[in-house]
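Why should sequence recovery work at all? Because a backbone constrains its sequence more than one might expect. Tight turns favour small or flexible residues, buried strands favour hydrophobic ones, and helices have their own preferences. The token representation captures these environments compactly. In the example below, the structure is given first.
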């Protein structure tokens, strides 16, 4: 699906990605995790075609970004960021409809799709008539998810989709997200700094980043029982109690 080959990215003298290799699996969920500033958002923005690497190559379904029509690639990939990134002057409905309008969809087709998605994320049509500022954090996040899904993309990229929510709402949405991923069967790459969330949403494929490099990739059990080094060991150890609560209490 996504293949990242030796990708480097710097901002001025600041190195955000220092030679990343990654291939994601079709129809599976991969979590990118690591401390703040380790390059998670940079990597997901590179996958989303929003940043171009200084060095190295990215392909999506065999299509090389360097040679591709990036607008066309972007339509095949849904992307949502923390706190939603919605346009405040557009209603929730208009936010969700925007990618469809840009893609030239007829009104009826958009309406049918939006109604279907609203049901999927448990939002009422009434809620969608409101502006983002009139919605709760959880509702905004659902709207952002709808917008990412409106064109029925092959892949979904989510950067800390639940990062801005309070713990109770977050737990609800985590459960819903996992159900949604199972139901949709899409390739998902999600960023989180929370190992419990990674273990819950992507138990089979967790990628630990540190200072722009992949430190270890594995299942949660592998990270826990055979950490690649002391950094991973400490990172996992520090969060394991919370993993127990969410994964064992929530499934
Ligand atoms: P993460 O999402 O893991 O917290 P980021 O990918 O956002 O980390 O950032 C990685 C590093 O690159 C950080 O040190 C950050 O300050 C830097 N960085 C990211 N984006 C920019 C930018 N647009 N300009 C300058 N520095 C940036
Ligand atoms: Mg980030």
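From this structural description, the recovered sequence reads:
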């Amino acid at each position: 699906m996504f293949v990242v080959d030796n990708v480097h990215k710097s901002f001025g003298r600041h190195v955000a990605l220092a030679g990343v290799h990654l291939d994601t699996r079709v129809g599976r969920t991969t979590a990118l995790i690591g401390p703040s500033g380790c390059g998670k958002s940079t990597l997901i923005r590179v996958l989303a075609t929003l940043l171009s690497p200084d060095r190295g190559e990215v392909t999506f379904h065999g299509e090389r970004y360097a040679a591709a029509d990036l607008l066309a690639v972007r339509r095949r990939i849904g992307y949502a960021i923390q706190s939603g990134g919605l346009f405040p002057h557009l209603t929730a409905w208009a936010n969700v409809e925007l990618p469809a309008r840009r893609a030239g969809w007829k009104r009826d087709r958009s309406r049918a799709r939006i109604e279907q998605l609203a049901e999927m994320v448990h939002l009422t049509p009434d809620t969608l008539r409101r502006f983002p500022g009139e919605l709760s954090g959880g509702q905004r996040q659902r709207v952002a998810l709808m917008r990412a899904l409106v064109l029925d993309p092959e892949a979904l990229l989510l950067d800390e989709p639940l990062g801005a929510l309070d713990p109770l709402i977050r737990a609800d949405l985590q459960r819903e997200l996992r159900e949604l991923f199972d139901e949709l069967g899409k390739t998902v790459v999600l960023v989180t700094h929370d190992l419990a969330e990674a273990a819950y949403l992507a138990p089979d494929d967790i990628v630990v980043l540190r200072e722009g490099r992949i430190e270890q990739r594995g299942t949660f059990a592998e990270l826990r029982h055979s950490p690649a080094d002391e950094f991973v060991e400490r990172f996992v150890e520090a969060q394991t109690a919370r993993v127990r609560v969410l994964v064992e209490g929530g499934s």
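A few observations help interpret the result. Residues 230-250 form the longest helix (21 residues).
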